[in-house]
Amino acid sequence: MLGEDFSTSEGEIKVSFGYQCNSHQGIPCGAANGCEIRSGKEMPRNGSFSCLSGAALSANATLANTNICNGLIGAEILPSLDSPNSFRRVPSSPSISRLDILSSSLQSSMSNLSCSPPSPVYSPEFDSYFLKPFSAPSRSDSFLNAMDVQVAGGAAGEDRVQAVCSEENEWLFCAIYDGFNGRDAADFLAGTLYETIMFYFNLLDWESKQNFPRAPNVLDANGPFEYFLDDKKYASVESFMKISADPKMGVSSDSFRRGVLDSLQRALSQAETDFLNMVEQEMEDRPDLVSVGSCVLVTLLYGKNLYTLNLGDSRAVLATYDEGNDMGQSERLKAIQLTDSHTVDNEVERTRLLLEHPDDSMPVVAGKVKGKLKVTRAFGVGYLKKEKLNDALMGILRVRNLISPPYISTEPSLNVHTISKSDHFVIVGSDGLFDFFSNEEAVKLVDSYISNNPSGDPAKFLVEQLVIKAAHSAGFTKEELMNIPAGRRRKYHDDVTVIVIILGTNHRTSKASTCV
Length: 516
Prior knowledge:
The chain is α+β, with helices and mostly antiparallel strands and 516 residues long. The protein has twelve helices and 20 strands. It has helices spanning 72-81, 98-109, 124-130, 184-210, 247-250, 254-282, 347-356, 387-390, 431-434, 439-452, 458-474, 478-482; strands at residues 15-21, 28-31, 49-57, 83-91, 148-156, 159-166, 171-180, 227-229, 232-234, 293-302, 305-311, 315-322, 332-337, 364-365, 368-369, 379-380, 413-418, 423-429, 496-503, 509-514. The protein is globular, with a radius of gyration of 22 Å.
């Protein structure tokens, strides 16, 4: 059953895009119908990745555009970022930053929301630096500096997916925002988080050149964040870590890697603050915004390092070759989950939640946080974080006995994995994928597919196999399932977004598919 492919069917996965490069400068040589993928250990490992494949399938019915932030995100920012039919080359340093535009628009009508990083108060130098948001440092200061980048992405139901790559500097940014109770939070992230992350990377380099002590993270109010570097746990960075003047020389250093992780966390904290401030400003007209949220999964592949940040239950799964054992067994591909699952089903998360709310006898009700959410960490969902936002809801939607908020954490899990010659590919997916496939099953499907289809689209194949399995479970044919309208089809599967990153640099190609 799972070997069946319906890429030629009239189902919903119809649109694909890709490009192929024959040089190390990352210049597109034309559209590609597929991407050449070589098996496992034969591929050189001189840098980041050789192929990017993405696919998305909707199950939820949702608004095509949202009107948050005066409609600016839906009308101005997202159209400039979304490219569901092809990768597009865009300048990496636009003359006017998207966040500058957003900040100006919001400041004109919302005095409490700046969409810019908070100003440190202990240093005159930092005070003057932050007086004009985003005026400095420039994009050219960033270790990810590139003349231009390739972007692709779009929406599927309440999910949003983004891919930004620079072959010039050998880095790849991918993000999946799995929205719930609406797409507003996922749209906000898609419209702002990448730019916010770039800002904090710029700030990291700028601080290094100015030799300033690091600004404390005033948003880190819930205690230290956990960092895992190749299975070693580190506390949150408390002081500035000096970085080599040559970024590629510094990629392997623990201090540089911790700095990257800390920048990712600071950017997410900033986005959360901005979003909840926006919700407070708009909740009188749109009280539903207080319940809107999103899981977050960000991956950054730079040099030999794969960084991940996640909130919620999306996953990044590494496929790597086991060296075998003393019995002379041949190599086999194994699945390693690089992210934590932040749900009440995770005993560690459930225990943490109970310990953080000793005065609440019922933080978990019917297998959900306060009877509302299975995820224990998420972006947005303000009514479970602030009493004021909970009070905006009426009747059964309002949470009774919100004794000790916040109940949903915005503390991410962060990880950095050093790519080795044994590593083959990474699957990045929203929880809809893993409702039907275990980590091992997903890795086995992708490995089998790319072995037999070196010019195929493994992410699209994974989504197609999920549809077949969902249809079989519901007693439908795949055609019958796909004919059920979005919204009603949510009964049988969730929105699904998948990215497959083939590791190595011998032959770079990018390909993706999307369904809206």
